[in-house]
């Protein structure tokens, strides 16, 4: 649809394991890296991403912004010139943001959605400065998320 591949997915849970992301996959999933970073923060072991220079010139510098956001949520990671190295929690929840601290999304819809998901897998939640830009790509995201968590 609209020039993009479409599929129905059946999703089930399993333990996540850190990986070395092959830079060859970057063009086909460049917009999915922010949520992959969240998943990597919860995995067992280390995830290493390279070849992500394009993420620096999206709606925001998604490498730096996601590093700062995930650090604020309690993840252990480091930024490199072309990616992130993320040490996962082994499945334990992220601590979440401390009272009054907000993730700055830079009006980037993918950062806002990814960190909203991070809030679901944290003990204290994650406060995001602005969810308005999410409507750019997923207008009913907030309603769908609220329905999933019973809010």
If you had to describe this structure to a student in words, what would you say it looks like?
The protein is an alpha+beta fold. It has one domain: Alpha-beta prism (UDP-n-acetylglucosamine1-carboxyvinyl-transferase, Chain). It has five helices and four strands. Strands 1-2-4-3 form a four-stranded mixed beta sheet, covered by helices on one side. A hairpin with a 2-residue loop joins β3 and β4. α2 packs parallel to α3 and α2 packs parallel to α4. The termini are far apart. The model has no long low-confidence stretch (mean pLDDT 94).
- Biggest sheet, spatial arrangement of strands: 1-2-4-3
- CA-CA gap between termini: 31 Å
Q: Count the strands?
A: 4
Question: What is the CATH topology classification name?
Answer: UDP-n-acetylglucosamine1-carboxyvinyl-transferase, Chain
The CATH architecture would be Alpha-beta prism
Query: What pattern of helices and strands is seen along the backbone?
Result: EHHEHEEHH
CA radius of gyration is: 15 Å
- Give the domain tally: 1
Q: Ranges with pLDDT <50 over ≥5 residues?
A: none
Sheet with most strands: 4 strands, mixed
Helix content: 25-40%
């Amino acid at each position: 649809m609209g020039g993009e591949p479409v599929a129905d997915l059946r999703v089930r849970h399993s333990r996540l394991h850190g990986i070395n992301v092959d830079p060859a996959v970057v063009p086909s999933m460049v917009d999915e890296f922010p949520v992959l970073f969240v998943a990597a923060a919860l995995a067992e072991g280390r995830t290493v991403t390279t070849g992500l220079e394009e993420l620096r010139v999206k709606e925001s510098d998604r490498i730096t912004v996601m590093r700062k956001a995930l650090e604020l949520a309690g993840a252990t990671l480091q930024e490199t010139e072309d990616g992130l190295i993320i040490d996962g929690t082994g499945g334990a929840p992220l601590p979440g943001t401390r009272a009054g601290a907000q993730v700055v999304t830079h009006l980037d819809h993918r950062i806002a959605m990814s960190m909203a998901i991070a809030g679901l897998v944290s003990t204290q939640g994650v406060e995001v400065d602005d969810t308005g830009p999410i409507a750019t790509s997923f207008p009913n995201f907030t309603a769908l998320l609220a329905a999933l968590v019973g809010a």
